[in-house]
Design goal:
The structure holds two protein chains of two kinds.
Chain A: H1 4-31, H2 43-55, H3 64-93, H4 104-132, H5 147-179, H6 205-229, H7 237-246, H8 260-270, H9 302-310, H10 316-319, H11 322-325, H12 332-352, H13 364-367, H14 371-375, H15 382-386, H16 393-407, H17 413-425
Helix pairs in contact in A: 1-3, 1-6, 1-12, 2-7, 3-4, 4-5, 5-6, 7-9, 9-12, 12-16
Chain B: H1 11-16, E1 23-26, H2 28-33, H3 35-50, E2 55-56, H4 67-72, H5 75-91, E3 96-99, H6 102-111, E4 120-123, H7 124-133, E5 148-151, H8 165-172, E6 177-179, H9 209-219, E7 224-227, H10 230-242, E8 250-253, H11 254-261
Parallel strand pairs in B: 1-2, 1-3, 3-4, 5-6, 5-7, 7-8
Helix pairs in contact in B: 3-11, 7-8, 9-10
Classes of the chains: A mainly alpha, B alpha/beta.
């Protein structure tokens, strides 16, 4: 009978991690729907980027006040999760504060966690005020209508509740320690929860133990629920920021990818020895000619798909986008959100159809992202530079433009004129190539 | 203009006389055909002439780098242009290229190597900076002494290739007061021309990008808005006109500032 708690704990823990594992597997499968791209070169530079940008938050602090508040929440969450280790051991073994044998160091740890927990609550409150009272433009943007706005607030509430539970648990524990309750060893220091403990004055020992146990259980269950909430929210960035910064593009931002399939054809076209009447080489059995550009998520590469899951919808990209600033429909954040929405839809389609995708008559292009958005981009790389975790919305925009132009010949009419000029006379305007040096003789 | 102080040799001339220039000046479509940009081209040539830099242009053998086609999504047209240009450049055994257009600069520097064209490519502000550092070029304040100048970072020079200091270092020599816009360098706002936008009408919105950017510049209360890109120059010139400030604010390329300061 006395083992009931332990068994219940193990079951809850297994369910929490088990369900999480199922979703992680799904996440990886969906990311792998993307085309291949080699991002395994230069490991040194990649580790360095991850250390600086994800771990060191170097791009977050470009907005210094918010950057520092974000670091408090981030460090708070990482460090307080050390406490999780103790909770798990206690829960399985039926011990209480099993690490308390570390004495002074334990007190230091718990004290630090409490200060951080308090910092997290304050920071999260400021985040909430920015979203809901001050209503910063990028947080009330049309991109976030409906679920994304609620999602952001739920995350803030979750974090606050978890921290309050942690502090309540400590406050009750501290009270019980002082009262000399059986089982409650003298351990830890409670710089913050010490202010909550007086609330328990006059309560019976049994009531306070009930409060302590309730807070303990709700804290661990809350963490497990939050962990499983990640996959359904924008909050995956706490995990994916690391691989995302590792696998991000290392080349100069102005270098757009070269389409090799085009290179082969252009070379053939320009080869004076090529036989124009030669029959095309026999196609391999069942070979599908490579599609130029992207009209759906499977045409994007896996890094672009990981980008979509990593995006936490902060909107720094959209805030720096010249098209969005001037009222155009394009929003780089929305490009990432739509890519993720479509990828989720494709993933669910695969789940439903026993592992294969069945055409649903929809695509990322048109059903999620319109040509009007794509053509508003100035390719300025402002969004790529602004992203705190090196997401590249521009590469998706470019791949979709390529599809529009090379597969559908659907460029805006003025651009067709520009391209015809380049083809005919080697300049985007209608000037003869023979007049290229005329400027030399013009006074 | 006499032959003495304005010479523009072509690669064909050079080859005919058995010479190899130090650097090829890639003029670009804008620098060749656009009336405003041609002035930048000439200013840069005057500086090269005065610093006695042995250079040459391709002249009628030059063709669009393909940048606007690539940014518009037409990889076929881009690669055709690129390969044709690479054939010409390689035939002349070109080693080093300077250009006053950040779009040509970015394309030749970053996108030509994979197609067989590998050269040392520098933007004209970088090249002028190197002339300055080597003592081949001197810049005095002259007419710009005490003037307020704000520099607009071209996207394809700045964010795309991380070049922020060369143009600023040059302008510092003008004894002018350099003022930064609130959005500059890494955070610089685009002028609105990139990504082939130069060649089409903007999508529906509530403002033109060049006007938004011009407002950034006007906030610094400049006498001169400096640019390092012929397209930015056009966009900002139009922006200044839209704000009815063309009578007291000039939009000038860094090369023009230097050429003017030297009374070239």
């Amino acid at each position: 009978m006395s083992y009931l708690d332990n068994i219940l704990f193990v079951l809850i823990l297994a369910a929490g991690f088990g369900y999480f594992a199922i979703n992680v597997k799904k996440l990886i499968r969906n990311i792998k729907l993307g085309r291949n791209v080699d991002r395994f070169d230069n490991p040194g530079e990649r580790w360095n980027n991850m250390a600086m940008i994800a771990l060191g938050q170097s791009k977050m602090v470009r907005k210094p006040v918010m950057g520092i508040l974000h670091i408090i929440v981030y460090v708070g969450f990482i460090l307080i999760n050390i406490e999780l280790l103790e909770i798990i051991v206690d829960g399985i073994a039926g011990t209480h504060r099993v690490f308390s044998f570390m004495g002074g160091f334990y007190s230091f740890l718990i004290g630090t966690f409490e200060l951080l927990a308090f910092g997290v609550i304050v920071s999260v409150a400021i985040f909430w005020i920015r979203r809901n009272i001050i209503k910063l433009k990028r947080f009330i943007h049309s991109d976030l209508k409906g679920w994304p706005k609620n999602d952001a607030n739920y995350i803030l509430y979750f974090e606050t509740v978890l921290m309050i539970l942690f502090l309540t648990m400590n406050a009750a524990d501290g009270h019980l320690q002082a009262a000399g309750a059986h089982h409650y060893v003298q351990a830890g220091s409670f710089p913050i929860s010490g202010f909550i403990s007086p609330l328990f004055e006059g309560m019976s020992e049994g009531t306070v133990i009930l409060i302590e146990r309730a807070a303990w259980w709700m804290h661990i269950v809350g963490i497990l629920v939050f962990m499983n909430y990640l996959y359904y929210s924008k909050h995956l960035h706490i995990l994916l920021a690391f691989p995302n910064t590792y696998f991000a593009n290392l080349k100069p931002k102005g270098k757009f990818v070269n389409l090799e399939s085009v290179t082969a054809e252009v070379k053939l076209m320009m080869d004076p020895n090529a036989d124009p009447f030669a029959a095309a080489p026999p196609a391999e059995e069942g070979a599908v000619p490579e599609k130029f550009g992207a009209s759906d998520v499977q045409d994007l590469n896996w890094v672009q798909l990981m980008n979509a899951y990593t995006c936490t919808e902060c909107g720094r990209c959209t805030e720096s986008c010249p098209a969005n600033i001037t009222g155009k429909k394009l929003s780089p954040r929305n490009i990432m959100m739509k890519t993720r929405d479509r990828l989720e839809e494709v993933g669910k389609n695969i789940d439903k159809n026993k592992g294969t995708f069945v055409d649903d008559g929809k695509s990322l292009l048109n059903d999620y992202i319109t040509p009007e958005e794509l053509w508003a981009c100035t390719t300025c790389n402002g969004c790529v530079e602004a992203c705190p975790v090196n997401i590249d919305p521009l590469s998706i925009i470019m791949d979709m433009r390529r599809y529009l132009v090379m597969e559908q010949s659907a460029a805006p009419v003025e651009l067709n004129g520009m391209m015809t000029n380049i083809e005919n006379n080697g300049a985007p305007w209608q000037y003869s190539q023979m007049d290229r040096l005329n400027w030399k003789d013009e006074a | 203009m006499t032959e003495d102080n304005f010479t523009v040799p072509t690669m064909a001339d050079m080859m005919a006389s058995g010479q190899q220039p130090e650097v090829l000046f890639w003029v670009g479509c804008s620098g060749s055909f656009d009336d405003r940009a041609k002035k930048i081209t000439k200013a840069f040539v005057k500086i090269l002439n005065s610093a006695k830099v042995p250079f040459a242009v391709l002249g009628t053998e030059e063709s669009c780098t393909g940048d606007p086609a690539k940014r518009a999504g037409n990889e076929f047209l881009f690669q055709m242009q690129a390969m044709a240009n690479i054939e010409v450049l390689n035939a002349y055994d070109v080693k080093k290229i300077v250009t006053a257009c950040p779009h040509c600069f970015n394309t030749i520097k970053n996108e030509y190597p994979e197609l067989g064209g590998t050269y040392e490519v520098v933007h004209h502000t970088e090249f002028l900076k190197s002339l300055l550092d080597d003592g081949r070029l001197t810049i005095e304040g002259g007419q710009f002494k005490g003037k307020k100048i704000t520099f607009h970072d071209p996207c394809y020079l700045g964010r795309a290739n991380n070049i922020y200091e060369a143009p600023r270092d040059l302008m510092e020599k003008l004894d002018a007061e350099l003022v930064e816009m609130k959005r500059s360098k890494l955070n610089g706002l685009c002028c609105g021309a990139g990504g082939a936008q130069m060649f089409k009408e903007p999508e529906k919105g509530n403002k033109d990008v060049n006007v938004e950017r011009t407002e950034d510049a006007l906030e610094t209360q400049p006498d001169i808005i400096a640019a390092g890109c012929p397209f930015c120059n056009t966009m900002l010139t139009d922006g200044v006109k839209a704000k009815n400030r063309e009578h007291d604010i000039k939009v000038m390329d860094v090369a023009e500032l230097i050429a003017n300061a030297k009374d070239l």
